[in-house]
Amino acid sequence: MIPRYLIDTQLEGLPVIHKDVIVIGAGIAGLFTAIKASESNDVLMITKKSLMDSNTRYAQGGIAAVISEDDSPAYHRQDTLIAGAGLCSNEAVDALVHEGPQGVQDLIRMGTQFDQENGEFALTKEGAHSQRRILHANGDATGFEIVRALSEKAIANPRIDVWDDHFVIDLITDNGVCYGALVQKPDGQRLFVRGKATILCSGGAGQLYRYTTNPEVATADGIAMAYRAGAYIQDVEFVQFHPTSLCYPGAPRFLISEAVRGEGAILRNIRGERFMEKYHEQLELAPRDVVARAILSEMEATKSTFVYLDVTHEPADMVRHRFPNIYEFCLNYGLDLTSDWIPVAPAAHYMMGGVKTDLNGETNLARLFACGECSSTGVHGANRLASNSLSEAIVFGRRIVERINALTPLEGHEHVRLESQGRSEAPIQAVVEKRLKLQKLMVRYVGLRRNANGLNKGLDELKRLRSIFSSVITKREEYEFANLLTCALLTAQSALSREESRGAHSREDFPERDDLHWRKHTVLHREYGLTEERIDHV
């Protein structure tokens, strides 16, 4: 069993810091929520690296919101529900599509500069959207622009303290209430940060996989620590693989935005054949899971490790203007987006599931909230609609702050006792090798295509890595590996239990979607194990 706490320690004797609101993580979820919360609270933001290191920073496509007169919340709602393949929460989606535009206005007030054309927002279209509703910044650098603006705002805010290079080891709870977090400083010293509300904004779990568009920091920390604390973890079998990450010797798995296909790019196999018409009527703009699996099929059929993305038929000036960062990045590796076919392959991109929350972002643990990719609000269902993630973060960030402002100050015992695990003194060895082994196992057995034999084998192999939980650990990379292993076990377990194919979860042994038996969520809990929660609404 996964232990309640990663380390043996006592809170007595540790320094205690009191704050109104504790925000764990940066990115759009952490920054936006911290700025909103600071209007009436003293806020502490804890990041394990820095404010500029998050998945948001790498978001290229943009943020989805109803801005155009040709668009409507009803259209956005329908597109989101279709992509979510029957597992979205209607109420959560309603909140997203109706409150998203107001959130965009908040971002603009906080200094974000979205691209404009002729005095109006320049809107683009992405896969599975019926309308042009994606706002972008600096062409293809939307996430970077949002993080830049919000970081400047947060750093200048006297009511927000920012702790860079601090690692949150665990949440401190007692009788179903979250009191704060156990934090390790850069010098190794530990302290107890206590607050009336704790918000997990810790991002995703892309580092579960060998190939990912996510940065090094995306190690499932929030999901894992919430699970250890007794929060419900929902739908983590739904991992979105982005169809088109750069696949070139010496280059990282850099994201080639879906917006490139939105502006006319086509996919070709290594024989030069366009192939998407074999797989879906929407061709290159089919839902991401469809495109990713189509690419995988073509790679297998042609015995190749990649396919090509071809935008050479579009005007070169448009391509350079619309995608300046992608153009420059590819150029650094000798690839010209305007004249070369770009080699691409799928890579782990986004986890639809996460810490289960209500419509106010609150978990089943009182005073513990989750926002952004680490949360499962019900917006994304089985497959996230492109560019809905940034919208989700601001809509639910605002709802979380409204709920927090209604909370009474935290009372109760100053010191919660932590149970001792009696860990072995032998420190864990070779975490780097173990992490790589975990990533390879996940790609092989819990990746784009799954079956019972592979999932069972993957689970058995993952369980052999569990000695980390009974070892004395002190370093960030050891905590991260423990968190990755926790999330990997949960993902494999959920994927094995869901005997159907739906959205981003595809089973070769159960190739059909089964609404009769599987229109429900998988929910994991540290003590109660895996349960299923039916969706009653149609």
Automatic annotation (TrEMBL):
Catalyzes the oxidation of L-aspartate to iminoaspartate. Residues 20-390 form the FAD-dependent oxidoreductase 2 FAD-binding domain. It catalyses: L-aspartate + O2 = iminosuccinate + H2O2. GO terms for biological process: 'de novo' NAD+ biosynthetic process from L-aspartate. Its main location: cytoplasm. Pfam families: FAD_binding_2, Succ_DH_flav_C. It is an enzyme of class 1 (oxidoreductase). NCBIfam families: nadB, PRK07512.1. Its EC number is 1.4.3.16. Residues 435-527 form the Fumarate reductase/succinate dehydrogenase flavoprotein-like C-terminal domain. The active site is at R288. Pathway: Cofactor biosynthesis; NAD(+) biosynthesis; iminoaspartate from L-aspartate (oxidase route): step 1/1. Keywords: FAD, Flavoprotein, Oxidoreductase, Pyridine nucleotide biosynthesis. Belongs to the FAD-dependent oxidoreductase 2 family. NadB subfamily. InterPro entries: FAD-dep_OxRdtase_2_FAD-bd, FAD/NAD-bd_sf, Fum_R/Succ_DH_flav-like_C_sf, Fum_Rdtase/Succ_DH_flav-like_C, NadB, Succ_DH/fumarate_Rdtase_cat_sf. It comes from Paenibacillus albus. The gene is nadB. One of its GO terms (molecular function) is L-aspartate oxidase activity. The keyword Kinase does not apply. GO terms for cellular component: cytoplasm. SUPFAM superfamilies: FAD/NAD(P)-binding domain, Succinate dehydrogenase/fumarate reductase flavoprotein C-terminal domain, Succinate dehydrogenase/fumarate reductase flavoprotein, catalytic domain. It is found in: Cytoplasm. This is L-aspartate oxidase. Its cofactor is FAD.
